[in-house]
Write a structure and sequence with these properties.
346 residues; mainly alpha; Serine Threonine Protein Phosphatase 5, Tetratricopeptide repeat; Cyclin A, domain 1; 3 domains; two-stranded antiparallel sheet; 5% strand; TPR repeat; TPR_rpt
Length: 346
């Protein structure tokens, strides 16, 4: 049995076990779904609980940028640079991207000149920074951005924010998330080969793969694609897949849990539903085994009670759901494996 988890206290506010993870899950889900104000709300709450969580910090920066809150993005990126969070050059480029949006060309010039003085610019990025410095000097001289320079500025922003999808799985997860976030509003067909390569790569992260599959479905891609996750492989046609929240197995488990707990224990049901959706988001588009919903409902009942610091009685759960202990144990192993890598510290 797991030890009872302590309730966290922050500034006299109580946070129950698992609260931070739930906030991160909700924040990242809303970021992926382009609900940036909601993503910010959840991630800011998570940041109160864990101010140094890199995943939360990067999620907040991306959300601020997409929501047009560039001052907040600048302040947070500055703080991350001061704390040495993330790859230094990557963070500097992110910071410069924000400065372009704010038209703070003098600051761009000062930053890049300092990088040159410190010999801190990698050889392969030398020309890129040189071009950026030249452009910023011209913009600073003009003070304002005239209509005929806007296309140049937009091109510069694109170059600074759109990263190469080639060998995506070899980039760190922060870069992967930035790339995927950047292509969500674009026609992804030019990137199909790179996306297919990532989906079939055992090193690709399951969370990123689900986002990419959702994009392929949304844009009605109808070619066969191989997906690998959790030592499983499947060939799918994205257009024909059910939506992430419409997976038949997940809906069956959810319906059964509701029939048992909706009136008896709605709080437990809410936590079970959140974990269920998280597990099937990560495993999408695979059907998980054993498939019967009553086994999953029983296992979720058991593990969520543990997460809430309760002492689940396996005998009562077995009787309640008519599920065998060994089958419940098999599902518990899967849940713990998926939960362990759901949202790693980036």
């Amino acid at each position: 049995m797991r030890k009872r988890k302590r309730i966290k206290r922050k500034n006299n506010v109580l946070f129950f076990p698992g609260a931070e993870k739930k906030l991160i899950d909700k924040g990242m889900e809303n970021l992926q779904n382009k609900n940036y104000s909601e993503a910010i709300r959840y991630l800011e709450e998570a940041n109160v609980l864990d101010p140094d969580n890199e995943q939360v910090l990067f999620g907040l920066v991306f959300s601020y940028i997409e929501a047009g809150s560039f001052e907040k993005a600048k302040a947070l990126t500055t703080e991350m640079l001061q704390k040495g969070i993330g790859d230094y050059i990557y963070m500097v480029e992110l910071y410069l991207t924000i400065l372009v949006h704010l038209h703070e060309y003098e600051e761009i010039i000062t930053t890049i000149e300092a990088l040159y003085e410190e010999n801190a610019i990698p050889f392969e990025r030398y020309d890129h920074f040189k071009t950026m410095l030249h452009y910023s000097r011209k913009m600073a001289e003009n003070h304002v951005e005239s209509e005929n320079t806007k296309p140049v500025a937009e091109k510069m922003k694109l170059e600074m924010t759109e990263l190469d999808l080639h060998k995506l799985s070899q980039k760190n997860l922060n870069e992967q998330m930035a790339i995927v976030t950047n292509i969500t509003n674009k026609n992804i067909r030019p990137y199909l080969n790179e996306i297919e390569e990532y989906l079939a790569d055992d090193n690709g992260h399951p969370f990123i793969k689900t986002i990419l599959l959702s994009l392929l479905k949304e844009q009605e891609v109808d070619r066969k694609i191989i997906v690998r996750k959790f030592n499983m492989e499947i060939e799918v046609i994205p257009y024909e897949l059910p939506g992430v929240k419409e997976q038949p197995q997940m809906l069956g488990i959810k319906s059964l849990s509701e029939s048992y707990l909706e009136n008896e224990n709605p709080t437990l049901l809410m936590n079970i539903t959140e974990m269920l959706e998280r597990i099937f988001y990560m495993s999408y588009p695979f059907e998980l085994h054993p498939t019967p919903p009553h086994i999953w409902a029983a296992a979720l009942h058991y593990i969520v009670q543990q997460y809430l610091g309760l002492e689940p009685m396996i005998g009562k759960i077995v009787d309640k759901y008519c599920a065998a202990r060994d089958e419940i144990a098999q599902v518990l192993d899967q849940i713990e494996e998926i939960e362990k890598i759901s949202y790693p510290n980036l």
